[in-house]
């Protein structure tokens, strides 16, 4: 009888240790996953995004112009911050100061003869 009681106590303690270990492991995994999602994935996605707000409902932003319609000179935005996109309004200057970037406009003009 004493042996059965001792065995039952050991089994109960062993089961409790396993439950505690699994609970700690699951909690650690959950905290690690949440930290990964919060700090790594979100920051990576935002840093690689070039277009912050222009035509976000379109899968791809494309503008086409006929050469005849351009006139003598056309200046196009490459920083994606222009309020007159696709034309440049000088927003790259502020963007460059804030980020240390060196982006500038695309200038298309007729060749001087």
TrEMBL record:
Keywords: 2Fe-2S, Iron, Iron-sulfur, Membrane, Metal-binding, Mitochondrion, Mitochondrion outer membrane, Transmembrane, Transmembrane helix. GO terms for biological process: regulation of autophagy. InterPro entries: CISD1/2, FeS-contain_CDGSH-typ, FeS-contain_mitoNEET_N, MitoNEET_CISD. Residues 91-113 are annotated as: Disordered. Its main location: mitochondrion. Its cofactor is [2Fe-2S] cluster. The keyword Thylakoid does not apply. One of its GO terms (molecular function) is 2 iron, 2 sulfur cluster binding. It is found in: Mitochondrion outer membrane. One of its GO terms (cellular component) is mitochondrial outer membrane. It comes from the Eukaryota. Residues 60-98 form the Iron-binding zinc finger CDGSH type domain. It holds the Pfam family zf-CDGSH. The chain crosses the membrane at residues 18-36. It is a single-pass membrane protein. PANTHER family: CDGSH IRON-SULFUR DOMAIN-CONTAINING PROTEIN 1. This is Iron-binding zinc finger CDGSH type domain-containing protein. The lineage of its organism: Eukaryota, Metazoa, Chordata, Craniata, Vertebrata.
